[in-house]
Amino acid sequence: MSGFELDVDAVRWRAGLSAVAAATPGLVPVIKGNGYGFGRDLLAREATALGAGTIAVGTYAEVPGALESFGGDVMVLTPWRPFFSDVVLDDRVIHTLGRVDDIAALAASAPTARITLEGETSMARHGLDRHELAAAVAALGDLTLEGFAIHLPLGSSGGKGGNYTEAENWAAALDTSQVETTTLYVSHLTPSELAALGARRPHLDLRPRIGTSLWLGDLGALSVRATVLDSHLVARGEHIGYRQRPMPRDGTLLVIAGGTSHGIGLEAPKAVSGVVGRGKSLAKGSLEAAGLSLSPFTIAGQQRWFAEPPHMQASMIFLPGRAEAPAVGDTVDVAVRFTTATFDAINLR
Ligand SMILES: *Cc1c(COP(=O)(O)O)cnc(C)c1O
Predict the structure, then answer these.
(1) Residues framing ligand 1 (Cβ under 6 A)
(2) Residue that terminates a domain, selected from 168, 200, 217
(3) Is the pLDDT of residue 171 over 90?
(4) Radius of gyration in angstroms for the set of CA atoms belonging to the chain, rounded to a whole number
(5) Residue with CA nearest ligand 1 atom 9
(6) Same domain, 171 and 193
């Protein structure tokens, strides 16, 4: 143990991955950004073990690494743009197109590239309006159409309607259009929505693109631990840190591995605040009044306060009064947002 680390119960985690893959025919694992905390290379190896034929990455910058670490096809979720300088043209790359002008431009510059057409959903992020489908088809030229793609909002609330209705409307639009494909790449449909769509439109080859609920589907298999690097007794009024802030009370100042470079922000992840017990309300009142912020580090069962904003590689945590301080070298629990976390080590055990 040396720093800010992720411990993975590998047997349990992989059992979860296999269960999702088995329950999700056509699965396209999404491997983008920080690799959901695991790093993209590690996930590419897991995708291979799951038998995936295609993975999806976020950007063209992520393509070269993906081609190296994964042997199958690599779909790029960010739509191709003529001004991108890092586009990778390769037989294993599937480009996303969401603007009619771009379809024509790619057809002119890379006539046989493999592509998906993206439809604009209520996300309103990228994609073709359904009235543009005819123009899109006309612009395709010799491009190889691999499928149609839709990206729906998170958490299809709205009861019966929600994402299912929107996906079904797009499936209907696809069926009646001139777009010659029966492959529909979807993002953010629940398993039951996928099943319902598959039953309603059995001729469609549904390809769910899933990241979070695959890689982070079983958080119980993951634990993040931060090492206590140093510990100092402090007195009320004593000035500490970069900002030489006065300490609100007597207590212990802990220096713990994990800072801004690991994705530790001044705000503890919101989802955590409700779950982990916060400091006693009295302590909270006075420490908050003293200008401290709640940290994501949990010590002796309580979420603790930053003595000052996190540093690059470490955080300074204030432990008031007689709260029992962990020893230097001990580890403490820390809640992270996995999509912004970077670990010093990932231990698959
Ligand atoms: C990121 C992304 C996904 C995967 O999202 P998760 O919430 O991590 O499953 C799917 N589709 C698109 C277009 C994305 O950008």
Answers:
(1) 30, 32, 77, 151, 187, 209-213
(2) 217
(3) yes
(4) 24
(5) 211
(6) yes
Assigned domain for 2 exists: no
β partners of residue 312: none
- pTM listed for this prediction: 0.92
pLDDT given for residue 285 in this prediction: 61
Question: Tell me: the pLDDT tens digits for 322-342?
Answer: 778 999 999 999 999 999 999
On whether both 53 and 94 belong to a single domain, the answer is yes
Nearest-atom number in ligand 1 for the CA of 214 is: 9
How remote is the CA of residue 36 from the centroid of ligand 1, in Å?
A: 11
Q: Are residues 49 and 188 in the same domain?
A: yes
| Coil, strand or helix at 176 | helix
CA dihedral 192, 58, 13, 52 (to 10 degrees): 70
What pLDDT digit, counting tens, does each position of 98-157 carry?
999 999 999 999 999 999 999 999 988 999 999 999 999 999 999 999 999 999 998 755
**Nearest one of 197, 189, 186, 26 to 116, comparing CA atoms:** 186
Candidate from 97, 188, 339 with most ligand 1 atoms within 8 A of CB, to mutate: 188
